[in-house]
Amino acid sequence: MAPRYENMTRADQVRARRSIEPARRKPIPQPEKYSKRNAESSARVTVRRADLNMAKPTSSAYTQHRRKFYVHSEASGTEIELPSLPMVKLSWRLASALLAILAGIGIYLVSSSPTFLISSINLNGAVRVSAQEILDTIDLEGTQVIKITPDQIKEKIVSAFPDIASAEVSVSFPAEVNVSVQERIPAITWVENDTPLYWVDEKGYTFPVRGEASIPLTVHASGEPPRPLGYASAQESALPEEADQAPAEPKPSVDPQFVEMVLKLRPILPQGTALLYSPEHGLGWTDPKGWQVYLGTDPKDIDMKLAEYQVIVAHLLERNLQPVLINLEYLHAPYYRLEH
Hints:
This protein is of the alpha/beta class. Among the domains are: 96-183, Ubiquitin-like (UB roll) (Roll), CATH 3.10.20; 184-229 and 246-340, 3-Layer(aba) Sandwich (Rossmann fold), CATH 3.40.50. The chain contains 9 helices and 14 strands. The chain has helices at residues 10-20, 32-43, 52-55, 92-112, 131-138, 150-160, 234-237, 256-265, 302-318; strands at residues 66-72, 79-86, 120-124, 164-172, 176-183, 188-192, 195-200, 206-207, 217-221, 275-278, 282-286, 292-296, 323-327, 335-338. A 9-stranded mixed beta sheet has the order 8-7-6-9-10-11-12-13-14, covered by helices on one side. A 3-stranded mixed beta sheet has the order 3-5-4, with helices on one face. Strand 4 (164-172) and strand 5 form a beta hairpin. The termini are far apart. The model is unreliable at 57-63 (pLDDT under 50).
């Protein structure tokens, strides 16, 4: 007879219960932070990719796609397949190579063919300057047209001829050069010791006397004209230049204000009177009554100086005085010199 359950010890009760019920394992309680981390880890998905280099086909495995063409036949539901054509793709490298080859062929043909040798030069605008002088200076005959640089030719013409204010050069294929020049207009003829030395234009540029010109006003000078600020003498401008240095751009050699003064005196001069220049007193003339008058070189107060001159002359004539010189170079300090 089995013993009663109540009379069994606690250990015997546990053994009896295990023999009757299956063992049930209770989960081990874990802290909250470990449970959350395990849930996140289980939600992750690992993706494995093959090597990208392995996915690219090699040159040996590459097969060129061909475009297929089909033509419908008379029988219904049938069509004829034409021979397939390869699909040609032109890459930018191939296009660049073709362009380079074509450019090289073109340059070779132009540089070696006599068709592109300069055979004619069209010159326009030269009146006083000899056309042959200009052509000899640029010396382009027999030159390949692709070797011509219009800007260099223009600088060469302007620097070689002070008479020329500007030049335009253009090239026409197959072998033609067009040169158009604009000459300077003389405004003053500079004379020393009764010898014409050069012409001066309205901007102060000097250039040789060539041919005839009825426009210039003659200035009989006893010295050099006033120079502009920053003027370099002929010796300083003739310093040796580097071989690859561009020719120096021409600059005015006479003060433009002085030229303006000369042009303002043109309508004031008495008829048949020569315009004089003295480095000491400036511009002036010999009055028909026998004295010399000088007004300086500044055109700023020319009208006031002329009015002042008339007052001084009237004062001298009233007193029956014969001056030798009347100087109005300085407006507020005029003076006159009488005969001894």
